[in-house]
Design brief:
mainly alpha
Length: 171
């Protein structure tokens, strides 16, 4: 195996941690990825996959810390920011979710999935007009993306704009 051939290679070790994760061995993945992070604290991938291992193991505080470490090493790393928003949403931490989702949209204004994620955060806060605006942009960016239309339809439904909601889900 690669682990025997290149036991010190950071990429190989991260890949090994990912395999452990895929096998549902989150505790073993955490141990392996902690070692990788200790050996190379400047690897955003090591921090990110350590966060995913913590998350899989329901260690949400540790997952958030590892995602923030990934962002310290690689500011604006989209996959880490998205994951942090989703983690914050799952924990009901709407304030941090908003800050990170807004950062995503600022850094990647042409990414409809980031707009959709910000819309979800805003809708959870009851900011339906702002959520609608983000979803309208997402639909403009990806007019054939059914998720963008469904999300916009859901916001319209929450606003009780029934004809608009129906139009979005009937596409």
């Amino acid at each position: 195996t690669l682990m025997k051939a290149a036991p010190k290679d950071i990429t190989v070790r991260i890949s090994h941690g990912r395999v452990l994760l895929a096998e549902g061995k989150s505790t073993e993945a955490i141990t392996e990825l902690q070692r990788v992070v200790a050996d190379d604290a400047n690897s955003p991938q090591a921090h990110y996959f350590l966060a995913m291992a913590y998350w899989q193991n329901a260690e949400f505080g540790q997952a958030g810390a590892a995602l923030r470490d990934a962002l310290k090493v690689s500011p604006g790393l989209s996959i880490a920011l998205r994951s942090l928003v989703q983690l914050d949403l799952s924990q009901g931490n709407l304030s941090d979710a908003t800050v990170n989702a807004e950062e995503l949209v600022q850094k990647y204004p042409g990414d409809e999935t980031d707009r959709e994620l910000l819309s979800v955060v805003l809708a959870r806060q009851g900011k339906l007009k702002e959520a609608e605006a983000e979803n309208v942009i997402a639909v403009q960016l990806a007019p054939k993306d059914p998720v963008a239309h469904v999300n916009l339809g859901q916001v319209y439904a929450a606003e009780k704009k029934w004809p608009e909601a129906q139009k979005e889900v009937d596409l």
